[in-house]
Amino acid sequence: MTIRLEGPGVTIADVVAVARRHETVTLTDAATERMATARDIVETLADGDPTYGVSTGFGALATVTIAPERRADLQAALVRSHAAGMGPPVEPEVVRAMVFLRARTLALGHSGARPIVAEGLLNLINAGITPIVPEHGSLGASGDLAPLAHAALTLIGEGSVEVDGAVLSAAEALAGAGLSPLTLADKEGLALTNGTDGILGMLCLACHDARQLLAQADVAAAMTVEGVLATDRAFAADLTELRPHPGQATSAANLRALLADSPIVASHRTDDLRVQDAYSIRCTPQVNGAARDTLAFATTTAETELASAIDNPMVLPDGRVESCGNFHGAPLGFAADFLAIALAEVGAIAERRIDRVLDHTRSHGLTPFLADDPGVDSGMMIGQYTAAAMCAENRRLAGPASVDSLPTSGMQEDHVSMAWGAVRKLRRVIDNLRRILAIELTVSARAVDLRNPLLPAPGTGAALAAVRTVAPGPGPDRFLSPELQALDDLLASGGLLEAAETVTGPLT
Hints:
The protein is mainly alpha-helical.
């Protein structure tokens, strides 16, 4: 499909489509007209009072007035000097999202850049030219200066890019695609670099991934309920309604759907001496549900930012060009930090369920570590070690980045958001959570198989069948790492969720 970039109306799904599915993007006529109108306003400022970024230097150098004949040099110099990142390259999907979202802001018509600048960014996306952007450099105010500068560098034919996995010079890649470098005009270098687009792109991708992962966390938990002969009674609707948090209700409903008509659960409804299950089983909807509520907040924040004009100064319809602080990443940083905390706890409770299944004193009849021949075989023992290691790392990553401001630019930028760091670590938390859930699936699937001839519920049974397409069932010890990676890939693709939903209907 082709996404028509109006400026307003961009969704998280659009960001995912451009970043991951390489969808093409075109500007609408309305967006072009808005940009042209704003550009006319900027050009009227050429001989007027000093205007930040148009006729002055940047940051602490804003008091330096730039002569008209040097203002084109000013914009190119800004891009070159601000492209000062270091470290390994940021993932291509993040760069594509960032470039797309910068074009989105320009298309709103409050930045004063010519339409050709936004078209240049979209040409990079459509030609498969991905600027190489180092990981370190953004403080989240004034936005993502260094990352966006590395992307803008490509537009002027400088720096390095990736095309089909190969690293090329920007000049070579542009020429190969039939594109020409741009010569930036007044304010355009600033308009290309003064935004939260990298932070926002990563938050959009994280919200998309977390939504899918939380549904699959409920699938893994339901399978564990069966594996340890736990009960589904704590997930009853009338109990959940007594504490009406929306996420909790959703998670409990998922668990009920997945465990409906389970022969395993039915097998011990009576004559079971246990009064109640451990917290890691019984409180799954409370933890997974609270994470959903946190995700809802983060998603709302991302959607609000997708509707926002992020630049400085801003060009207003009445002809004013005003400085502001819209580039500050605090709203996104807070949301990312909060979501990282919540998802770390989803992983923490999953790790406790893994340990419960593997401990023969608490698993109600399963062999130690689900080993085929305990002693000779170690079974899934070290899988739990790996989950514990990632759980511990997530606890460290859950420490907030957004409270750690450092002043820059000669104290002109004396409070910064550190939101880039917040979303970078959020992405790592999500990766770790997915891998923890892959281990829980490996463990719980084996536990359910070991309950044979008792059968799982139709919902968990469909999920188990999907697991068995990529990982074998119980047996003697084998090389476990590839099996865990296969389940990680299954979760990343959403395949586990799709399998379960063929029986349960949509799980959210």
